[in-house]
Specification:
Elements lengths: L6 E5 L5 E5 L4 H10 L7 E4 L5 H12 L3 E5 L2 E5 L7 E2 L1 H4 L9 H8 L1 E5 L12 H9 L3 E4 L3 E5 L7 E3 L5 H12 L4 E5 L5 H12 L3 E3 L5 E5 L7 E4 L4 H13 L3 E5 L7 H9 L3 E4 L3 E5 L8 E3 L11 H9 L4 E5 L9 H7 L3 E5 L2 E5 L7 E4 L3 H13 L3 E5 L2 H4 L5 H7 L3 E6 L2 E3 L19
Parallel strand pairs: 2-15, 3-14, 6-7, 10-11, 18-19, 22-23
Antiparallel strand pairs: 1-23, 1-24, 3-5, 4-5, 7-9, 8-9, 11-13, 12-13, 15-17, 16-17, 19-21, 20-21, 24-25
Helix pairs in contact: 1-2, 1-7, 4-6, 5-6, 6-7, 8-10, 8-12, 10-12
The structure holds uridine-diphosphate-N-acetylglucosamine.
Length: about 450
């Protein structure tokens, strides 16, 4: 029992004020954890966020036989002794990012088996670039209904052009190529800050990777990698979400411990809707305007506008003055949020991968379901701005990627509660109430 009975209840129309510390990046932590498969020595990772996806990755790695110890935001992982080759369905189905163990297992053990998660969002098509890249390094990959099996006596460096700068494919291929014979050149590689973070960590482990952060990665294979100690970069998506919380409520919110250079596109768009944004050394302050202006947004691979912030910005633009257009270029079917937004009165028309948002329409109370992680957060943001009460169900999705999201919004002055087993639990940090992260749910 438990998580499906939880819901968040927000009473909005209240500006948020204050400062919030941003955690380490989910999408960096998960991959660096997987990278520890590549060495028998301990890898010490700091600034790891306390989120459910990290728990799932711990389960994946422990399931493979690695030892994992955790102390607050530090995780120490060691892949010594016999290591398994299989990431099972029960875990892969919870978190699609589990696929990132494929490259490291193949490179270290010459074999890997990863369950196919199934489901419409997560089909085979979505990992074709991972598969093709690893095949070009010499792996033989057999894709069955239930699982994918990969084998390679030896991996050999190759020139690999990606059809699309996929984050996951870049990471899987980069990790496998670290222990391949010879040099790999990966063209049209993803340029996300999390790729740079992974490459920096791998280089600390003894890999020879250059070009991270550009479209061409050059990886000179080495015989073996060693242990390292590494600190994860701040989570730019979590930071952006709290920045939108300040903007959407007409508040004044400062995100701290961030890297503003990763937030340029978000800052630009927040300014274009009328926010006053001040950038400090490792913090950003956002003051929301009395009236938000409409804007057009197209999601693109980094350094373009992040697809993960598409739903939060749709919530924001629903309150703006005039019509906005959001074009989703990264994920085909990432408009599931719109069904829920409409329940709150949002007026959004979809034409293929364009969403036309009529601003000023988001007005009423309602009950909605978090369809996924970022859309869930976006529904909470909408609730913060609405005059009335918004109930968000299926909040286990939000716990996948945000540490104590309701509590941290409450600390900024939000009127937000989490229900547990039908009884409302008041979020009072002073009284030490804590909201337990549920341990089940399906990730995309
Ligand atoms: C990562 C992030 C996710 C973010 C996304 C895009 C993690 C855990 N997740 O996901 O939060 O939204 O990057 O910035 O890091 N594709 C294929 N074939 C492939 C691989 C991808 O067609 O082999 C397509 C996907 O279907 C999707 C697009 O490429 O339409 C982008 O996917 P990708 O960049 O791989 O995203 P993820 O690594 O899954």
């Amino acid at each position: 029992m438990g998580c499906y009975l939880h819901k968040i209840v927000v009473r909005g129309n209240k500006p948020l004020f204050g400062e919030v510390e941003i955690q380490g990046a989910k999408n960096s932590a998960l991959k660096i954890m997987a990278a520890s498969i590549l060495t028998s020595e301990p890898v010490v990772i700091d600034n790891v966020p306390k989120i459910r996806d990290v728990n799932v990755m711990v389960d994946v790695l422990e399931g493979l036989g690695l030892t994992v110890s955790r102390n607050d935001r530090r995780i120490v992982i060691q892949a010594k002794g016999p290591i398994g080759i299989e990431a099972p369905y029960q875990l892969v189905s919870q978190m699609r990012a589990s696929i990132v163990v494929l490259g490291p297992l193949l490179a270290r053990l010459g074999r890997a088996r990863v369950a196919m998660p199934g489901g419409c969002n997560i089909g085979l098509r979505k990992i074709d670039l991972h598969i093709r890249g690893l095949e070009m390094l010499g792996a033989k990959i057999n894709v069955g209904q239930a699982s994918l099996e990969a084998e390679a006596d030896v991996l050999v460096g190759a020139n690999i052009p990606l059809d699309f700068p996929s984050v996951g494919a870049t990471e899987n291929i980069m990790m496998a190529a670290c222990l391949a014979r010879g040099t790999t050149v990966l063209d049209n590689a993803a340029r996300e800050p999390e790729i740079v973070d992974l490459a920096d960590c791998l280089n600390k482990m003894g890999a020879k990777i250059s070009g991270a952060g550009t479209s061409t990665l050059v990886i000179e294979g080495v015989d073996k990698l060693k242990g390292a100690s590494f600190r994860i970069i701040p989570d730019r998506i979590e930071a952006s979400t709290f920045m939108v919380a300040g903007a959407i409520t007409g508040g004044d919110v400062t995100v701290k411990s961030v890297d503003p250079s990763h937030l340029k596109m978000i800052i630009k768009k927040l300014k274009s809707v009328g926010c006053d944004v001040t950038v400090g050394i490792n913090q950003v302050n956002v003051k929301g305007p009395a009236v938000l202006e409409a804007a057009n947004i197209s999601t693109l691979p980094y350094p373009g506008f992040p697809t993960d912030m598409q739903a939060p910005f749709m919530a924001l633009l629903s309150l703006a003055n005039g019509k906005s257009i959001i074009t989703e270029n990264v994920f085909e079917n990432r408009f599931s949020f719109i069904t829920e937004l409409r329940k709150l009165g949002g007026e959004v028309d979809i034409e293929r991968h364009h969403a036309v948002i009529t601003g000023g329409s988001l007005l009423k109370s309602g009950a909605v379901r978090a369809p996924d992680l970022r859309a869930g957060a976006a529904l909470v943001l909408a609730g913060l701005a609405i005059e009335g009460v918004v109930e968000i169900l299926d909040i286990h999705h939000i716990d996948r990627g945000y540490d104590s999201f309701p509590e941290r919004l409450a600390s900024l002055g939000a009127d937000i509660k989490v229900t547990k087993d039908e009884s409302l639990v008041e979020l009072s940090l002073a009284e030490g109430d804590s909201y337990q992260v549920p341990d089940v749910g399906v990730g995309i």
